[in-house]
Write a structure and sequence with these properties.
about 70 residues; about 65% helix
Length: about 70
Amino acid sequence: MFDEVMGDAVMGGDAPTVVAATIVAAATDPKPKLRYTAGSRAGRVSTLRRIAPARLFDGQIRKLNKMVG
């Protein structure tokens, strides 16, 4: 199951250029942040994590990753 979920994530992930641009921005930022998000999905997940109750957020992550319970 893990291999399937990871394979789907890699195939549906952001373009390497998007990730590379984020890495360059982080490496050259004069005042680096603790975290950088690369791509629109990561940004949405980060926002959801801040506004959703932990139980709801964790449940959605478990569902997306096809984890039981």
